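Pipeline run #58 for the internal structure catalog. This entry was flagged by the ingest filter as a single-chain record with no existing model, so it goes straight to prediction. Upstream metadata was stripped on purpose; only the residue string is passed forward. Reviewer on rotation: M.T. Logging verbosity set to normal.
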Amino acid sequence: MVNAISILGCTGSIGRQTVAAAEHIGLRVAALTAQRQIGLLEEQTRRLKPAFVAVFDEEAAKQFKIAVADLDVRVGSGLQGLIEAATYAESDCVVTAVSGAIGLKPTLAAIDERKRIALANKETLVCAGELVMARAKEKGAEIIPVDSEHSAIFQCLMGRKPGELHKILLTGSGGPFRGKARAELEDVTPEQAVAHPNWNMGAKISVDSATMMNKGLEFVEAMHLFGVTPDDITVVIHPQSVIHSMVELVDGTVIAQLGVPDMGLPIQLALSYPERKPSPFEHLDFYKLRDLTFEAPDYEKTPCLKLAMDCARTGGTAACVMSAANEVAVHKFLRRELGYNRIYDAAAGAVAAVGVVQHPDLDTILAADQAGRIYVNEKF
């Protein structure tokens, strides 16, 4: 049972929803971390009364320490601060809601301490899935997915024997530009790209959902998280986002997890598992549902999805390079320094330019991540 948690990335979209879920079900928040948003972090700290708070940015950490000098809270900074929060002795569970490969070392440290990992950081498995899952198995640490799709698959597989699974059916809405040809998207603005039709998310993940890179990252994650091959996963476009994903069993039975599109639901389950607790979220009303439709992805119109699936098949550091390059490219797009269609060009270019290493160790993974970032910053 989880009694206290650490939240890595508490001021982001997932982090804020995790705070709300913890308060709703009565969990103590023992440790918090943020990048540099110290205004919201101070408000959360005063309300939640964690024992330890880390601010990744060193200057922001100094300012935060002054702001909370009247509180009984210890303040850390940098990567070491994140690792301390992830391994904080009083926490049973670590919610990894930071973005980017920066979450990898804290997650591995938490696994070494046999914490439950409520995994919301995609890069952890995209970059180092083989390493992370092997470490979790060795240490006996639970990894509970927070992504709505992976949470759905996790729920559909509860109580199933490994040999019963035939195929994972990974659903995706198709994003705000579903069906549009790449040529039609040349002048897409950041405002248009972040306007997801179903989900309220942070800017980076919203852009990834628009390009469908997000679904590609989830494809790689699912492969590692559930111990399957790329051929065992089928992507299904489901615009209504009511079915969050499905599994097909060996006898042809398909089991689906349905619910309103609200990230609070998988977050709460990751914190309360194996129990289910009442939630404040809207329940699904079948009388209000109209059509539930499904279609195959059009890979010509969604090249980022195809690129990620190809990287999953290549293995090694390919997906890590792609993810890092994509992250830099998306942030350039959000700053209006790069066109929307160039996001794919940057990620694909990095994968082609940076060599792939199979079965990498942690240092090799971090080097691959850095190489992907350098490529985009230098070439784009």
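catalog note: The chain has a mean pLDDT of 95.
catalog note: The first helix runs from residue 13 to 25.
status: ready for reviewer M.T.
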